[in-house]
Amino acid sequence: MQMGAVAVLTGEVRAEGVGKTIDETTLLLPTDVSADPGECIVLRGPNGSGKTTLLRIIGGLLVPSTGTATIGGREADERDRTVRAAVAALLGAPTTYRDLTLVDHLVLIDSTWGGDPATSDDRSLALLDRLGIAHLDDRFPHELSSGQEQLFRLALTFSRPASVVLLDEPEQRLDTGKRQVVAELIRERTESGGTVVMACHDPELTATLATRVVDIVPAR
Amino acid sequence: MSKRKQPARAKPAPEPTTAQPRTPQPMPAEPAPAERPQSTAPDRTAYDPTTPDPTTPDPMTDEPTTPAEVDYDDHDLLGQADWVIGGEAARKARQQGLYAGYVLFLGALVYGLPIVQAVFRTSDASSLGDQLSSPEAIALLVASVAALLGAVVFAGRFRGPVVPPMPWIDLVLPVPLDRALALRRWWRYAAVGGLFIGALSGLTIGAGLAFAHLAGPVTIIVTTAVGTALGVLATRLWLWSQVRSWPGPDRGLSLLWRVPDALRELHAESLRAHSANTSTMAGSALTGNLRTARLALTRPIRHGRSARLRPGRPFGVLVRRDVLGLRRTPGAFLSGLGLTALGGAIVTWAFTQPAAPSIAATIGLLPLYLGFGAWAEGLRLQADNVGTPSLLGTSELTEAGAHVTVPTALTVLVLGGWVGVAAAIGSLPASAPLSLWLVLVLVVAGNVLAAFRGSPTFMLRPQMVIAWYAVPAFTVVLLGSLVAVLTKAGSYTWLSVVSWLVYAVLAWAVSKVRRLTYLHRA
Fold first, then answer.
1. Alpha-carbon distance A55 to A71, whole Å?
2. Is the minimum CB–CB distance between A140 and chain B shorter than 8 Å?
3. How far apart are CA B143 and CA B154, in angstroms?
4. Is residue A8 part of a domain?
5. Can you tell me the ipTM of this complex?
6. Could you point out which of B200, B240, B354, B399 has its C-alpha 20 to 30 Å from the C-alpha of A62?
7. Which of A109, A120, A138 sits opposite B391 (nearest CB)?
8. Of A100, A91, A106, A32, whose CA–CA distance to A59 is shortest?
9. How far apart are the first and last CA of chain B?
10. C-alpha torsion A157→A160→A166→A169, nearest 10
11. According to the model, what pLDDT value does residue B490 have?
């Protein structure tokens, strides 16, 4: 009853000349981005330059007005279950179940991706522990501070398997120590062959992680 | 500018002032801030700026004078506030309440009486009379009234009967006038409304029973009196629940008959919260965004945290998620149980008892549909998640299928229980289980449609939004009623046609799940 047999896409991300215009408003000028497995690409640019729009296009959540975006050679379209299986994304606030605790969320995600039930609890608690919120495992999402909530969102994103991880400013609301933890998680993901594309405003995090930096030019 | 005559003022209105520290100074009395309480000279009011500050020491004796009581003309102050805030328009708006009552009365006459007559119209009046006066029917009636009163108490936690507009709360309530008087208007609206609706409901039901020759004309008087009393009780319980929504010293049941004291117990912050809830509900209703209202009004979950979601296969873990959710929200479970039990009883009665009027199924379908919905939070949460990056490794249909499993199983249990009761009594036509199966499919499909209805894409007019909301429930009630009528008439050819329609609704619901899941990609 899972998603069925789906092809495993490699983490090759290609966005060629992708841009987005809605009515008269240009959200993103035509931009090229490419990332290969093991790379971490950092998108940089002022507020409103279109970083989130670009990430949404790469994740297949938004249709580009110009250009094409592919994941592992396949058109980036979230309706395609193969693409969905390949891409984990933290783009805005994911909607959480108000009646599940933090650890319940991770167990649920782990189970739906076919994780071994015998060790699901351990994996979930270990991830929460990595992010320093293991002591909050029995809390409900509405009981978290904004920083804890960001860590929880990162845990949700990293708890599922993916060959491509898209992150929109993962450093938001995190202190220096926690940013290092997040950097470590991202580095582990790239070292294991995953591809990470992220928008980031933190120069230190960018310097630490970026294989390449893509500067997004604002439309105006 | 309003043309309404400005209410008489004993003295000029105060000038805006800034609060001054009250440090006693051995100086001649300076003009005191106008809003401070003043001593009551015979020809002075609290608003007389020339009145000396009672806390200022007398320059001759160097001793502060004793603070004295202040006379406020509460009615005058309220009149001024009304005029300043609303002017003529507010007065006219209040008068429209009378018009709404008039329309309601006409509506009851035109639609209420025929509907109630249809409810009790039957080929076997004596059997129906016996069944309605049976202990089971009386118990069901008492349970329904209790559930209704419970719903009123529940609603009062979020939106009580006394909800003045925000400017009134912020600008008028801080004035030191009697809060019971300042809030009395909104209470009166609710009290008159409750009394009117209760009396009208009692009158309509009594008249319907009398017209259907199930009771004598005296019943009309009795049901009207009972309806009126219930209307009054419901409104007072509503106010009592509003008082209890905020901590306070006096929250006992005696407030039910001490209305002025109950009004005085209403805290400004509580009134603000209720007013904000009203705005949220109205805004959500008009924009078709029910999620905002649901999240704003549901009580945060805080218990059952020690229970853990047991990992396993995807479908099973999603089903267990819903079970865990119901364990952590016992209110949702119990309200679902109450509504489903009530609706299931009426619908089963309609399908198994020859004396039951066909319209009984129509009446029972709505609580059955709502009860299922109370158990289907997982389905709504799935619909809330559309448009966000995928977190779960299941397809949208698998997830939806898992989320309807628990409410469907619970509904089957309840309906099965009532069918068992009917069989024990000895009245279970062969067609009843088939018809109940169709009703179950309809209820499931209707709730899936409701959860995945998305947002209205048309011009937002209240009538259109109401129609848009009502589509799933209306579909369930309409087709379910058709099933009941055809079952009772024994028109099995037509029943098979309607059964295809029922499955078409299910297919429509499935397509809505797919469509909404991918609609966001634009």
1. 12
2. yes
3. 16
4. no
5. 0.86
6. B399
7. A109
8. A91
9. 48
10. 20
11. 83
How far is A176 from chain B, CA to nearest CA, in Å? Answer: 27
Summarised one tens digit per residue, pLDDT across range B326-346 is 999 998 899 899 999 999 999
Q: How far is A56 from chain B, CA to nearest CA, in Å?
A: 9
Q: Cα distance from A93 to chain B (closest Cα, Å)?
A: 8
Q: Compute the count of residue pairs across chains A and B with CB atoms less than 8 Å apart.
A: 131
Please give the pLDDT value at position B467. 82
User: Could you give the number of structural domains in chain A?
Assistant: 1
Nearest Cα neighbor of B108 from B206, B17, B41 is B206
| More confident: B356 or B23 | B356
pLDDT above 60: residue B66:
no
* A165 φ, ψ (degrees, to nearest 5): -120, 125
Domain with A137, as residue range(s), is 13-215
Residues of A in contact with B305 (CB under 8 A): 101, 138-140
> Is residue B26's pLDDT more than 50?
no
Q: Measure A38 CA to nearest chain B CA, in Å.
A: 22
* A63 contacts chain B (CB < 8 A): yes
pLDDT value of residue B471:
92
Q: Quick check: is A220 in a domain?
A: no
CB-nearest partner of A63 from B321, B384, B522: B522
* CATH number assigned to the domain comprising residue A90: 3.40.50.300
Mean pLDDT of B459-475: 81
| Tens-digit pLDDT profile for residues B176-203 | 778 888 888 889 989 998 998 999 889 8
Q: Residue B252's pLDDT is what? A: 84
Spell out, as residue ranges, where chain A has pLDDT lower than 50. Answer: 1-2
Cross-sheet strand order for the sheet of A13-22: A25-35, A13-22, A66-71, A74-75
Residue B277: is its pLDDT beyond 70? yes
In Å, what is the CA distance from B392 to each residue of A104, A106, A209, B41, B315?
A: 13, 10, 27, 75, 11
Computed on alpha carbons and rounded to an integer, the radius of gyration of chain A in Å comes to 17
- Indicate the pTM of the whole model: 0.75
Q: How far apart are CA A17 and CA B288, in angstroms?
A: 37
Two structure tokens written together for A81: 């279950």
Using the Cβ of B333 and the Cβ atoms of chain A, whether some distance falls under 8 Å is answered with: no
**Any domain includes A4:** no
Two tokens, residue B35: 């809003």
The verdict on a CB contact (< 8 Å) between A63 and B385 is no
B50-64, B87-101, B473-487: range with lowest mean pLDDT: B50-64
Chain A contact set for B299 (CB, 8 A)? none
Distance CA A103, CA A98 (A): 13
Closest CA to A133 of A106, A152, A110: A152
Distance from CA of B463 to the nearest CA of A (A): 30
- Is A88 within the bounds of a domain? yes
Closest CA to B301 of B333, B269, B274, B341: B333
Looking at per-residue pLDDT, the higher value among B135 and B83 belongs to B135
Residue B174's Cα: distance from chain center in Å?
A: 29
A residues 175-194 lying closer than 8 A (beta carbon) to B: none
> Residues with Cβ < 8 Å from A9, sequence gap 6 or more?
A71, A72, A73, A74, A82, A83, A85, A86, A163, A164
Tell me whether residue A135 is exposed, middle or buried, using C-beta atoms within 10 angstroms of its C-beta: 0 to 12, 13 to 18, 19 or more.
exposed
Looking up tokens 């995600």 gives A109
A139–B contact, CB cutoff 8 A: yes
Average pLDDT over residues B152-170: 87
